[in-house]
């Protein structure tokens, strides 16, 4: 019983949010903790989007449309190598993306020739984080593939901050 109370204290909000999508996650379910945790990883919208994107392969992405200006975005920075814009579904008070202008579908598909570009993305993200007032810290995230919850197959760096981040992520 004490373990259940501790679990509710630590994961209660998470379980409640997932229980609507997966009733078997509701506290008191006959499923084991491990089964509930496995199902919990599938509960978020981003995970579902990642599964759908992985099934479709790598066609032109929403970021392609932002780069060619056929889709509007709140652009905060641009140079000859990258573009940065605010996330349309922010996960924190500050949440923006930095994308390369050339399409690399996944971080796991980079080559040694991409080294300078990757460094440029991270340096740009760092400078923009400072400009956005994130002097107390922030998180950079690069999702890769279906299990990494990548929902857009164009390499992108999320910069998330303006609140205390939790650990472990994901």
UniProtKB/TrEMBL annotation:
Enzymatic reactions: adenosine 5'-phosphoramidate + H2O = NH4(+) + AMP
HIT domain ranges (all copies): 62-170
UniProt-listed SUPFAM superfamilies: HIT-like (SSF54197)
MF GO annotations: catalytic activity
The name this protein goes by in its record: HIT domain-containing protein
Similarity-based family: Belongs to the HINT family.
InterPro entries: Histidine_triad_CS, Histidine_triad_HIT, HIT-like, HIT-like_sf
């Amino acid at each position: 019983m004490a373990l259940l109370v501790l679990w509710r204290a630590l994961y209660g909000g998470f379980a409640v949010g997932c229980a609507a999508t997966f009733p078997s996650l509701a506290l008191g379910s006959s499923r084991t903790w491990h089964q509930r945790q496995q199902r919990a990883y599938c509960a978020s919208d981003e995970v579902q989007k990642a599964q759908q994107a992985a099934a479709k392969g790598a066609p032109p992405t929403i970021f392609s449309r932002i780069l060619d200006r056929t889709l509007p975005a709140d652009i905060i920075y641009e140079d000859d190598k990258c573009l940065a814009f605010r996330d349309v579904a922010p996960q924190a008070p500050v949440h923006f993306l930095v994308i390369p202008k050339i399409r690399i579908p996944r971080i796991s598909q980079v080559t040694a020739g991409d080294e300078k570009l990757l460094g440029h993305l991270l340096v740009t993200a760092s400078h923009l984080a400072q400009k956005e007032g994130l002097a107390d810290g922030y998180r950079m995230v690069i999702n890769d593939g279906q299990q990494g919850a990548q929902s857009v197959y164009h390499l992108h760096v999320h910069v998330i901050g303006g609140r205390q981040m939790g650990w472990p992520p994901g």
